[in-house]
Amino acid sequence: MKLFETVTQMGHEQVLFCHDKDHNLRAIIAIHNTNLGAAMGATRLFPYQSDTDALNDALRLSRGMTYKAACANLPVGGGKAVIIAHPQDKTKDLLRAYGRFVDRLNGRFITGQDVNLSPDDVREINKETSYVVGTQERSGGPAPITARGVLLGIKAAVSHRWQQENLQGLRVAVQGLGNVGKNLCQHLHDHGAKLFVCDLDPKKTAEMKRLYGATIVELEKIYGLDVDIFSPCAMGGILNEFTIPQLQASIVAGAANNQLKNEGLDSCLLQEKEILYCPDYVINGGGLINVYNEMIGYDEIKVFQQLNNIYNSLLEIFNIAKTEKITSFEAAQKLAEKRIMNVKVKQVA
Ligand code: NAI
Predict the structure, then answer these.
(1) Which residue, among 63, 68, 64, 76, has the nearest Cα to 109 in the 3D structure?
(2) b or e along 240-257 (b: 16 or more beta carbons within 10 Å of the residue's beta carbon)?
(3) Is the dihedral of CA 5, 282, 28, 83 positive or negative?
């Protein structure tokens, strides 16, 4: 990999390679952009096949965090860290050694829990640095707020597509009934939507049927359903060249991260089918809003106010996409970059 060419092209400010021989630590901290504030991004521990895979993950995810924060209108920047290790080799010493590297950045990077790290692991890192979030859950976890954000995103998409906000009678297919999906189902039911659901776990689908009269659908049939909205709330990569041709929904709006398998290609496929796609990192920004507010002192009223940014940003994104004849995915990046540049211009002036 041509390192400087890559970071120049992707726009990173700083990439830190952390090595502590005594505690077997190999980690990469990528700080993408701090124009809006300190770089926030969780730490992922993963047995990457190669150092290049680890670096690519850190670079890609940190840039995603910059865009996510900008679209949520939060005064934070984007970062991400990866620890290259097998979960079974995770030790308290390794975590604390990592915490010391985070601390040396003096608040330029604030981190938390991602894949293969538990709240207890974050507490271990916290013994070496105060620049962590998620050690005390004052809010009861991010999922309910993420679900509220997704509901607002759905309303924005419905408003753009059908010039109404009323969800009464709309048919919504929800894929994945975990912490976010089940909360979303409740909101959609309360708003009069008709639910179609699937999950790997039959107990979860049965619960949605019992509580909200949801229709249970087989896993693979969820894509081709005759519905108005498809809401992916399970895993990434589910929008691709095989699933997009099956979609009959007019709107795709869900919480799952990295929904598009190939961002450039699949966002165009969706646009060609005239499907309005809510970029995942915009519509699922409630999780970051929640974490940010835990950091500054949790105030539910402020959190709910900030959630409206998801609605407003999505409307702006749809309008940019329409006016400039680009995909909503490209429009979201444009909006984020504009907000970051505006701050830079003010700082220079
Ligand atoms: P979760 O782990 O609680 O739930 C995921 C659900 O998806 C589980 O019930 C699982 O059985 C189901 N599932 C897995 N594979 C499936 C498949 N092939 N078909 C149907 N169902 C399947 O996760 P959570 O917290 O609800 O998050 C959902 C998605 O939203 C994830 O992609 C997550 O990264 C993303 N997200 C979550 C946030 C949060 O606040 N929890 C914030 C931002 C994004």
Answers:
(1) 76
(2) eeebbeebebbbbbbbbe
(3) negative
Pocket of ligand 1 (CB under 6 A): 142-143, 146, 175-181, 198-201, 204, 219, 233-235, 255-257, 284, 287
Question: Which amino acid, 303?
Answer: V
CATH superfamily, with its number, for domain 3-62+76-126: Leucine Dehydrogenase, chain A, domain 1 (3.40.50.10860)
Distance 239 CA to ligand 1 centre (A): 15
pLDDT of residue 86: 97
Residue 164 CB neighbour total at 10 angstroms: 11
More confident residue, 295 or 245: 245
Number of H helices, E strands in the chain: 12, 12
Q: Is 182 a catalytic residue?
A: no
Contact between residue 173 and residue 222 where contact means Cβ atoms under 8 Å apart: yes
Are the C-beta atoms of 108 and 253 separated by less than 8 Å?
Answer: no
Mean pLDDT, range 69-85, rounded to an integer? 97
